[in-house]
Every structure is written in C-alpha cells, then in structure tokens.
Amino acid sequence: MIEIAILLVLGSGLLHSVWNLFTKKSLNKNVFLWTIHLFSSALLLPYLWTEFDRHPLEPEGYTLLGISFMFQIGYIFLLSKAYQYGEMSQVYPMMRGLGALLVPVCSVLLFQESLSAIGWFGLGLIVLGLFTIAFYRMDPKNMPVKAITAAVGVGVCITGYTLTDKTIMEQGHMTPLALLEISNLSYVIALLIPALTSRQIKQEWVRNWKLILAGTFCSPGSYFLFLLSMNIAPLSHISPIREIGTVFGTLFGIWLLKEQQGFMRVTMSACIALGIISIGIWG
What we know:
By secondary structure, the chain is mainly α. Helices cover about 85% and strands about 0% of the residues.
C-alpha cells in the first residue's frame, strides 16, 4: 500500500505545481483562483449533499470541519497575495518548505507516527533545499516583506488544514471526496468579494479560459490524490514527498516564466529530490 501512496502523492505534487504555474501566469490571481474552484465546487456539490444526507456529522465533526474551513480560507487568500508580491520560484518553495517542516513534526507528536533516521535525514535535505531556493541571492535590503509574510502564512495554513483533514478522515467523519468539496467551497467564499470587485472576471476568462478549465481539474485533483494517500500511509512520510512539486515549480519558473535562476537553485532541487527518494525508500 505504501507504494500506491507514494505514486498518489507524487502525482499530487506534479498537479500542484502545474496549477500554481497557471495561477502565476493569470492576469488577476484572485479571479483565477476563484473561478477554477467555483467550477470544481459546482461539479462536486451534489456528492457533498448526498453524503451529508446519508451520514450526518456529529458535533465534533462540525468543529473539525470548521477549523479546516478557516485554514483553507486563509491559505487561498494568502496564496494569491504571495503570487502578487513575489516570484513563483521564490515564494513557492518558501511556503511549501514551512509546511514540509511542520507537518511531519506535528504528525509524529499528534498521530504517534515515526520516521527512521534516514527519513529524518531526507526531511532535512528537503527543508534545506526548499529554503535555500527561496532565499538564495535575496538582497536583505530589498527583501519582499509582503511576499515573505504571505508565504509564511500559507505554510502555517497548509500545516493546519492538513493535520485537521487527517484527523477528520481518521475519525471517519467524511470521505476524501466530500472533504475536497469543503476545501473548494472555502476557496470560493474566501475570494468571492475580491473577484467580484475586481471587475476582471470576463477579461480573465477571455484571456485564460484554457488555463481556467485545466486548473478546475488540476487544483482539486492535486489535493484529492493527497487525501487518498493520507488514508493509506503515515502523514509524516507522504507529506514531505509531496514537495516534489517544488522541484517542478522551480523548473517551471526557470523554463516557462523566464525567472532569473542559477546553478544553486537547480542543485537544491536535486537535493530535494534526493530527500524525497530517501523518505520514499527508507523513511
């Protein structure tokens, strides 16, 4: 089963980097993110309604769902800000790096999971690579404070909703697909006012309708694969592996967005990949 979980989380990481690339290329980040999750939430709403009808939640389930909902709202709101103020190749590894560090540590404490010595070494390589990519050659005098603040907030929210969603599924409150719809709805609500007040919905659709349609499946598909992997493998093992998306994200930033990179960032991407392999095989 662990092999299946690894394949699921690798696919999740790839899809995650793809829809983040689409977001960075969009005209208005709030409008783009709102639109892709509006479409995906419309597709899954009948399933969520059916699940609530068949399996009503207990009070504890509603509490956990509310916590996850708030973390998801914070995540999508801050994500749009991070991409407004910073480069993808810089803010993406920063926010993923914080999540990569906090989620396994908290999983060990909360869910009594464990990592082998090589697994902890691999996690260290991943975190080292992520933060080196994020801060390499950053001028301390011109640090994008808003971008860094937003990225740190995203990392905290990632940790919060990941641990909460793991608890929700572990206690049998909701299925992964229903939990995915809750995530979609939180994004739609969080970005509703910024999207509508921007008056750029039509312009975004005309310019990027292909990316919007692709993002409608890539964004929820990414988290759905991760939720499935959480159901069959320890969170402390699979969460760091998902950071393969950072490797793809950095390469996308270099090749497709023409962001200024260097040998160090490519090297650190290889460092992250080595850490992922270490956890996947010996973690």
